[in-house]
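Task: complex structure prediction.
Instruction: return structure tokens for all chains below.
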Amino acid sequence: MYDPRQNLIVALDVSSAAAAQKIVAAVGDSALTYKVGMRLYTAEGPRVVRDLVVSGRRVFLDLKYHDIPSTVAAAVREAAELGVSMLTIHAAGGGKMILAAVEAARDVNPALKLLGVTVLTSLDDQDLDKIGIRGHVADQVLRLAGLALTSGCQGVVASAREAAELRSELGHRFLIVTPGVRPAGRDHGDQSRVVTPTEAIAAGATYIVVGRPITSAADPGVEARSILEQMNLAVSA
Ligand code: C5P
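Output:
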């Protein structure tokens, strides 16, 4: 039976451990995985990750490592020691960097899911051109996703729009983690291209990452449960 709680990730984009804990408590058992990104991690350090892990939550550490292979491998090792379940690296760091990260993760925790970030959704074709990459964003996403997966990543981060294309080109045997999700009929914040939880799962996302719709809700628990219902619609339809 599909259990959407396994596939909902709540982004803790706040600046203090206290604020993060408040959200986790309010969400209760509606989500099992929490994303710690560069804001919270920079403000509070590894302790916030350790505390979440000790409390039985899974942590998706989204620090998007991108450096020389030995540096990334060492950082991946530290993250794995913290007990995180999911971790991001930039696929643009290249095959050698990805392989080094994969080996480091495997050494410490073979169950850790290493995810490749392809092209940030804030970039368009003109932006790519200015950094020397000719062609379309979609082609670069596919190229980098292919590199990430053949180098040993367990999945990629991709928008719902990209998810459908990645599934049709690269198959179903990898994870797709999709941000930019908004419950139907809600404020879109600064996310320009958004999809509903139902649409994201239907497009091929394995996990959806939801931040502000849950963290800014009057009752994050109610909002999270409504999102779970919308995820269920995609599989029961
Ligand atoms: O608040 P919101 O639901 O927009 O949060 C989405 C999360 O996913 C944020 O942590 C953001 O950094 C991340 N993200 C994103 N778009 C991407 C990649 C990551 O919104 N393309």
